[in-house]
Specification:
The chain contains 3 helices and 13 strands, in the order βαββαββββαββββββ. It is mainly beta. The chain has 2 domains: 5-99, Beta Barrel (Ribosomal Protein L25, Chain P), CATH 2.40.240; 105-185, RNA Polymerase Alpha Subunit, Chain A, domain 2, CATH 2.170.120. The strands form 3 sheets. A 6-stranded mixed barrel has the order 1-3-2-6-5-4. The radius of gyration is 23 Å and the shape is elongated.
Length: 200
């Protein structure tokens, strides 16, 4: 699986004033932590937003291409913190953590429902999506963007647990096997009250 590429410029200045200036210019400040040192970065906001939309946002493993260093220009990293504007949702700041391609990595991965409309939904039921993400452990090269769940055959009152997921080579799911991911709730019985009979 190819990691999405983030193009980043290394910056030597920091502070609130610098951050405000970057944002006015359509950039966002970011920090890369790892191997005993911290690198301050600036990223293009529109580029980051497109990557987040296509690759499960902060759950993906990114390949960061550094502009402004002489050697070791490519880093693998996870997003460890994301700050957003509470009103607009715009990304304000990102913290990345550098990882090694040879080390097992733990990461949260979104659960995606796939397949046809479930049998129970066609009968009037409602599919409750109880758990939206799972914690997995694997090498960075095989980290999935999503964990897919086929709910097509779920009937009324059926539940889909972590233990029901197919085995994915090289990936270990760390959540409790008994955790319910999906539950198909039957339709509510509508109480029909008969009109009161009039007195003769």
């Amino acid at each position: 699986m190819q990691n999405p590429v983030v193009e980043a410029k290394v910056r030597n200045n920091s502070g609130k004033g610098v951050a405000r200036t970057l944002r006015r210019e359509g950039m966002i400040p970011a920090v890369l932590y790892g191997k005993g040192k911290t690198v301050s970065l600036s990223l293009t906001l529109s580029h980051v937003q497109k990557l987040f939309h296509r690759h499960a946002g902060s759950h993906a493993i990114f390949q960061i291409e550094l502009d402004g260093v002489q050697s070791d220009k490519t880093k693998l990293a996870l997003v460890r913190d994301i700050q957003r504007d509470p009103l607009t949702g715009r990304i304000l700041h990102l913290d990345f953590m550098e990882i090694s391609s040879d080390d097992l990595v733990k990461n949260k991965v979104p659960v995606e429902i796939v397949g046809e409309v479930p049998v129970g939904v066609k009968m009037g039921g409602t599919l409750d999506h109880n758990v939206r993400e799972l914690t997995v452990e694997c090498l960075p090269a095989v980290m999935p963007d999503h964990i897919k769940v086929d709910a097509s055959m779920m009937n009324l009152n059926d539940s889909f647990h972590v233990r029901d997921l197919p085995v994915i080579s090289g990936i270990r799911i760390l959540d409790n096997p008994e955790t319910v991911l999906l539950h198909l709730v039957p339709p509510r019985a509508e109480a029909v009250s008969a009109p009161a009979a009039g007195k003769a």
